[in-house]
Amino acid sequence: MTTAGFDTRVSRRSTDNSVDIAGTLWPLYKLEALAIGLVVFVATLAITTSMQPAVLIAAAATVVTWWVRRNFYSRS
Length: 76
Hints:
The chain has 2 helices and 2 strands. By secondary structure, it is mainly α. The protein has a domain at about 25-75. Helix 1 (about 30-50) runs antiparallel to helix 2 (about 50-75). The longest helix has 25 residues, at about 50-75. The protein is elongated. Keywords: Membrane, Transmembrane, Transmembrane helix.
């Protein structure tokens, strides 16, 4: 009988621009984009009291923040 030996030790890359959430490294730019999107969503919803513009504006803010911060972190 042949057995395969698997290494059970997990090797993780540690970077300054990542946050460990439940054992998974999340890039900081993703968390920043989600936080900005949530803040923009709540603020827009409070101002307009309508879901459609709140969702669209928050989605746009999230995408812009995501790409700008990703570009910033990739350069440093």
